Structures are given as C-alpha cells and as structure tokens.
C-alpha cells in the first residue's frame, strides 16, 4: 500500500517536473528567438545582411543569382558600366539553384528588374545533401516570408530517394517539427552574427573577387579530386527539386515579364557529355530563353584566369566584359 | 511488447532482413537448449554449429564482396582474371553487433555460466532489444536476460538519470561529433588540396578522434539511457577513454563491450599472456586484427587496428624504456603536468592510426600520414572558421564535463546545479544550445555501418 502511494507520488512529481521543463523550454526558446531575430535583422554587413538585402531591398535593373560562382565570377560594377544599368550580384557562397529559386521568388515579390541572370554550375544540378543542409539560410525568413516556405521545407523531405535509416525511421517532414522552435531557425548562426558585429565585409554590389591564381599542379589535383568525389557518390542523379527550381525561376520571370538568362560561367574543366547540358538546353529551348555556356569556351582555357574552380579578379573581369555584350544583345 | 517494438524498429530499415535475424535466433535458441542437454563432444558440436551459423551470416553479408575483391586482385597479379559475381545487397543494420551478442549467449551456455533460455520470445528479445540492436553495447546474457523477467516499477531517479544520459548523448552526437565531422570531411575527402598544411592534417586527425568518440559514445549513452528509462541496465561502453594515461588504458575504456568480448572469447581462450610474452604478443595481434575486420570489410580498418595492436606489443616489450623516457619528462612536484603529459601522448598515439580508419583508401591514408610531418608555408587552413570554432567549443565542453566526472565527482553524473529550479533552467539551456549549435543534417551514426 505504502509502496503504491510512493510510486504514485513519484509519477506526479515526474509529470510536474516535465511540464515545468517544457514551460521553461518554450519560454527560453521564444526569448532566444527574439534576441537572435533582432541580431540577425540588424546586421549591417556580411552574408546575413546581403541575404536580407537581396530578399527585401534590392532594386537593381540586372540581378545575378547563384552560388559562389556567381559571387566571384560576375564583376557587377563592370557589367553595370557596359550595360548602363544598375546591377547587383545576389550570389551566395555554398548555395545552389534551390537558393536561386528562393532569391528569385523574394526579389520578384517586391521589385521587377529588367533581367535576372541565373548562374549554373553543371554539378549543382545533381543531388547533394549539402545543398539542402545549407538551405538553413532561409530559416530566419520562414515566419515572415511565406514565399520561401516551400523551398525551406525541402530540407526535411530530401532523403526520399536514399536508404537512410533515419528517413526510414521518420518518414515524414521532420523540418516542420524542428521549425516549431524559434532558436532552431538561427541554427549555426550565432557565431557569425557576433562576428558580423565586429567585422564588416565590404562588397561591390555583391561582387567578391578572388585575387590568387591557381598553379598547373593545383589544377590537376583539383580535377582529380573532383572526379574522385563524383565516383564516390552513391545514387548520383539529377535532383528533381533543382529542375523544379530552374523551371520555377523561368516561369516566375515569364509571368512578371522579366528577362531571364541562363549562364554557365567558365570552369577549369568541361565535363564532356554530362546529361546536365542537354537538360538545360532543352529547358531553355522549350521556354524560349537564352542560355550561354562558357564551360567549353577556349578563350578561358588559361589558368591565369582562375583562383581555384572559381575565376580570379582578372578572369572574372574578362568574362564579365564578354558576357555583358551577350546580355546587351538580349536586352535590346 | 518490447519484442514487438524491437521488431518494428528493425523492420523500418529493410523489412525482409528480419528473416536473417529470425534464422540466427532459431539456431542459437535451439543450440542453447541442445548444448545444455548434451554431453562431451556433442556439446561442442552444437556450439560450433551455432558459431558457424552466426559467422556464416556475417561473412555472406559483410565480407563476401571483400573476399571476392581480394581474390580477384590476387588472381589478377598472376595474370588470371576470374569474373566472380558480387552481391549487390545493403548490409543489415547493426549486423556485427547483434551477431556478437548472439554468439556470447551460446558460448556462455556452453561454458555453464548461463542457463539456456526456454522462452524463445525472451531469447529473441535478448538479441533484438531495440536500444542496443543497431550499435550496441554488445551485451552478455548474464547481465541482460534476467532483467527481462523482472518487474520494473516506476522509479523517478532512475528515469530522470536515464533521460539526462540520453540528452548528453544527443549533445555529443549533434553538437560535437557532427560538427567535428564537417572539418574532418574537408580534410579527409580532399587531402591533396591541403598538401603542405601540416596543422590542418593534425587538426583533421584530432577532430576525427573526437568525432568518432562522441558519435559512438553518444549513441551508447542514448541507448543506455533509453534502456534505463525502461528499467533495463545495460553495461557501460565508454569510460572517458581520452583521459587515459596510456594506450593500454584507452582500450580498457573504449568500446568496452567489444574489447571485453574479444578478451573473453578470443584472447583468453588463445592463452592470453599465460603462455609467455611472445605468445601474448601474437594473441594481442590476432585480437586487434579481428577487431579491425569486425569494424569493416576493408584493409584500412584492418591496418588501423593492427597498428593499435602493434602499439600494445611495443609497450609490452619496451615498457622499461618507455618509463625511462617518461621519467625524464615528468615533473617531481607537479602531478597535474604529469597527468596532462601522459594523457596527451596516449591521445596522439591513438589518433595517428585513425588516419587509416577515416581515409577512403590506403594511398590517401599514407598521404595523410606523410602530410603530418610535411611542413609547408601555409600550415593551417581553418576551412569555415565558424565550423572550426563551434567544434572547438564543443570539444572544450566535452573535456570540462569529463574532467569533472573523472577527477572531481568520481561518477558518471553530469555537473548540474543543486537546486531544482536551477536544474530545470540548466537542462533547458542545454536543449536550446543543441538547437542553436547542433548539426541537424542527414548524417547517420558512424557505427551503424558496422
């Protein structure tokens, strides 16, 4: 009898403590969320500021979207001078077409530029876990900007085609559950936010050039390791979400009568016969839009133009001057 | 109920693989009963049948392609090119763990340390108990089976300490292991891009050692904690190995359930150290060779563990000389310095062979080893600075907690405030820190692949 009552008391105590823990946790989570939101949206420089600027304030005539290749290879001040139009580089390090789609959606919700240039690296169209991981950049905007929710939610459904044990165990969109937390939306950001207070990263209209030059042996090593990485990839396939993103960008621009141009900037080595080329060609033909492929352009077959697989300042300036002429012909 | 939950858990992966488990469960269940009832050589025969069945399943699913690859390689060197078909199958999850656990049952019954379990459902639960099914700890029947028969009443302290252990395991996995893993991947997946960056390779190795430890011990903590909540006490699998003062001590504290399995069922039956130092050294090398093979069907694992074995053998033969070297480095008055010295040396010794564990192939591993001593002009690349700093903060927290447990509290409890209200705030803060700093990508536990 006494034992039963003692167990019952323990159960009540346990329940009370768990409820109290939940209450404190929710309170703390909200509080941390508010502080992080304040810190994030008051950044005056750095990647957080640039994302917010691109999403909510950019008003340039020509906007470049894409990954670090967009950011490093497109000399936007030069393009602006040649086109006589304002130009902004909304490329973001480590991102892919998924981010370009989010960026396009956000830009077109507040501004109608004359042209959107979508930079694409052939490899980016393949399924890569890391591209979904890096979509955490969208999470601070999740509550206030419904435009990007569809893309942010893809983080939780990415494993559909893998043999992942965690996916088998949780075959639903776990991201939506995690997003109940306000703190989670700023996951892996607090250090950058603190750094942003002290360090101001200055860019010229979003353009961030690289100054070093690759050596021949570094180039060979890069190509070898790149090919090895591709060989190691299990279940390598073109990502349907990225194709969807590309088509989404094109359709959205068409709806809003904004010119859209697809560009593959020069790379260290052309990946011959990659199915990605045919896919993009067919998409650009069927939607009647321009596609400029510089990956096999012999004018860029010079290591002096490259820092790594990105172009350096000399290369990006040369490339941007050639690209600008092409863009001019599209605009006129 | 627990068995049904375990079956459902296992079948989440590839449902048909439950048949493999069913096969070994039936063989071992009946082998246990037959061993008990038989005499003389027949007892041994039933044990051998059980072991062959278990090793057979392991060999087919885990080692078949490895053996075929090696046979083809050897044949190719002699100018012969046989086309032996390969198996295109995914390795059943946790196969090496539950196979070893099943084998410990029949061996213990054979040795007379365990009565055979008559209830097949209870025996099945022993093999399939879901918290430890996929990555251990590899239990012994004497510790686990009887617990399934006992009534487990609600115990506040037991449940709360189980939950705390689970939380600490989660912290180790997502805040430390996966964060270190990001830096490690950059070094080990693209080693040739870091040529000449000596410190990058050293940090890559150190971070891998912390990643591996926190990934595996994090899972063990969660498994032990979850079992504790249900009233089942599982064996300790890690006891702060990186605070050990010698490499020998590290192996007494690292993956204890596997190390003790090999000691009980391989090393001692081979004679251990009883037949002299030379024979002891050979036995040690056999155990570490098998341990490498247990980890994975690849020469990188075998070489890694063979080096660990060789380190222990070296220590066996040159103990006096090693003590003399340490004697010259030790301080006569500062005991703390001596502890740090021994711990740091043991840690570095254990880290170096890990390059084989993590590298994609032998040539990458050798390049990494060479690069540890190849001093270039740019010695360190931090990669993503934030990732590096998050990882360092995580490792510092790990050491702070473990030093507290090892030297101050002398228990496995986490350092926590005394008052109830503060305790709740403390654990809420840990959860918030996990949400803010944890890595929530699709990475799995490293040891799930074994």
What does it look like?
- The complex is a heterodimer of chains A (332) and B (450).
- Chain A is of the alpha/beta class and 332 residues long.
- In chain A, 52% of the residues lie in helices and 7% in strands.
- A 5-stranded parallel sheet of chain A has the order 2-1-3-4-5, sandwiched between helices.
- In chain A, helix 13 links the parallel strand 4 (259-264) and strand 5.
- The longest helix of chain A is centred in the first third of the chain and has 40 residues, at 2-41.
- The model of chain A has no long low-confidence stretch (mean pLDDT 87).
- In chain B, helix 8 packs antiparallel against helix 9.
- Chain B is built from 19 helices and no strands.
- Helix content of chain B is 70%, strand content 0%.
- Chain B is globular.
- Chain B has helices spanning 2-11, 18-37, 40-77, 95-111, 120-128, 130-133, 141-149, 156-188, 198-229, 247-253, 256-267, 277-295, 299-317, 319-329, 335-351, 354-358, 362-371, 385-409, 420-437.
- By secondary structure, chain B is mostly helical.
- Chains A and B meet through helix 1, helix 6, helix 8, helix 10 and helix 11 of A and helix 8, helix 18 and helix 19 of B.
Q: How much helicity do the residues of chain A have?
A: 40-55%
By oligomeric state, this entry counts as heterodimer
Distance between the termini of chain A: 91 Å
Strand residue content of chain B: under 5%
Mean of all residue-level pLDDT scores of chain B:
89
The total count of strands of chain B amounts to: 0
Strand pairing plus helix content of chain B: what structural class?
A: mainly alpha
The appropriate CATH architecture of the largest domain in chain A is 3-Layer(aba) Sandwich
- List how many beta strands of chain A DSSP finds: 5
Per CATH, the superfamily of the largest domain in chain A is: SGNH hydrolase
Radius of gyration of chain B: 23 Å
């Amino acid at each position: 009898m006494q034992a039963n009552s003692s167990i019952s008391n323990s159960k009540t105590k346990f329940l009370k403590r768990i409820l109290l823990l939940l209450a404190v946790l929710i309170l703390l989570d909200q509080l941390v969320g508010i502080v992080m939101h304040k810190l994030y949206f008051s950044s005056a420089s750095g990647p957080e500021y640039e994302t917010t600027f691109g999403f909510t304030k950019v008003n340039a005539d020509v906007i470049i979207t894409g990954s670090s290749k967009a950011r490093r290879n497109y000399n936007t001040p030069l393009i602006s001078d040649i086109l006589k139009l304002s130009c902004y580089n909304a490329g973001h390090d480590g991102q892919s077409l998924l981010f370009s789609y989010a960026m396009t959606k956000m830009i077109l919700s507040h501004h109608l530029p004359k042209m959107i240039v979508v930079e694409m690296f052939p490899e980016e169209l393949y399924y890569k876990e890391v591209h979904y991981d890096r979509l955490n950049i969208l999470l601070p905007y999740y509550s206030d900007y419904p435009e990007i929710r569809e893309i942010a939610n893809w983080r939780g459904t990415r494993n559909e085609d893998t043999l992942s044990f965690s996916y088998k165990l949780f075959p639903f969109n776990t991201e939506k559950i995690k997003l109940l937390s306000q703190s989670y939306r700023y996951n892996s950001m607090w250090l950058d936010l603190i750094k942003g207070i002290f360090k101001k990263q200055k860019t010229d209209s979003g353009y961030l050039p690289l100054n070093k030059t690759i050596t021949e042996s570094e180039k060979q090593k890069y190509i070898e390791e790149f090919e090895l990485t591709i060989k190691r990839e299990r279940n390598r396939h073109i990502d349907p979400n990225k194709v969807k993103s590309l088509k989404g960008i094109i359709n959205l621009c068409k709806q809003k009568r904004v010119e859209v141009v697809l560009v593959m900037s020069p790379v260290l080595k052309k990946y011959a016969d990659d199915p990605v080329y045919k896919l993009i060609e067919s998409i650009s033909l069927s939607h009647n839009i321009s596609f400029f492929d510089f990956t096999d352009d012999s004018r860029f077959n010079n290591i002096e133009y490259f820092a790594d697989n990105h172009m350096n300042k000399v290369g990006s300036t040369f490339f941007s001057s050639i690209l600008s002429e092409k863009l001019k012909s599209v605009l006129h | 109920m627990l068995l049904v939950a375990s079956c459902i858990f296992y079948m989440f992966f590839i449902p048909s693989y439950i048949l493999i488990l069913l096969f070994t469960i039936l063989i071992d269940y009946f082998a246990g009963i037959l061993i008990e009832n038989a005499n003389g050589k027949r007892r041994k025969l039933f044990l051998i049948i059980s072991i062959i069945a278990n090793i057979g399943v392991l060999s087919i699913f885990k080692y078949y392609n490895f053996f075929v690859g090696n046979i083809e390689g050897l044949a190719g060197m002699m100018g012969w090119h046989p086309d032996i078909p390969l198996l295109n199958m995914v390795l059943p999850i946790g196969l090496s763990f539950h196979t070893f656990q099943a084998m410990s049952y029949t061996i213990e019954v054979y040795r007379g340390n365990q009565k055979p379990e008559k209830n097949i459902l209870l025996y099945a639960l022993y093999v399939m108990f879901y918290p430890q099914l996929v990555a251990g700890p590899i239990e012994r029947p004497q510790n686990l089976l009887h617990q399934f028969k006992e009534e487990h009443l609600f115990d506040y302290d037991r449940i709360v300490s189980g939950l705390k252990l689970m939380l600490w395991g989660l912290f180790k996995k997502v805040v430390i292991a996966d964060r270190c893993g990001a830096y490690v991947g950059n070094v080990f997946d693209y080693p040739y891009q870091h040529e000449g960056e000596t410190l990058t390779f050293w940090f890559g190795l150190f971070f891998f050692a912390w990643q591996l430890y926190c990934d595996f011990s994090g899972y063990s903590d969660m498994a032990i904690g979850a079992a504790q909540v249900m009233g089942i006490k599982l064996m300790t699998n890690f006891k702060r190995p990186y605070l050990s003062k010698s490499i020998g001590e590290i192996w007494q504290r690292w993956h204890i359930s596997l190390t003790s399995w090999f000691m009980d069922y391989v090393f001692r039956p081979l004679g251990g150290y009883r037949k002299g130092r030379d024979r002891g050294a050979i036995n040690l090398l056999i155990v570490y060779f098998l341990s490498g093979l247990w980890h994975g069907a690849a020469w990188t694992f075998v070489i890694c563990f063979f080096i660990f074995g060789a380190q222990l053998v070296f220590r066996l033969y040159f103990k006096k000389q090693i003590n003399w070297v340490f004697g010259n480095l030790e301080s006569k008055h500062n005991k703390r310095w001596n502890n740090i010295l021994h711990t740091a040396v043991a840690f570095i010794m254990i880290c170096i062979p890990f390059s084989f564990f993590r590298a994609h192939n032998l040539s990458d591993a050798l390049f990494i080893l060479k690069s540890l001593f190849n001093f270039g002009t740019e010695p360190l690349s931090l990669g993503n600075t934030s990732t590096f700093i998050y990882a360092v903060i995580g490792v510092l927290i790990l050491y702070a907690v473990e030093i507290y447990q090892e030297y101050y509290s002398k228990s496995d409890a986490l350092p926590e405030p005394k008052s109830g209200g503060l305790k709740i705030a403390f654990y809420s803060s840990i959860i918030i820190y996990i949400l803010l700093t944890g890595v929530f990508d699709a990475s799995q536990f490293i040891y799930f692949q074994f």
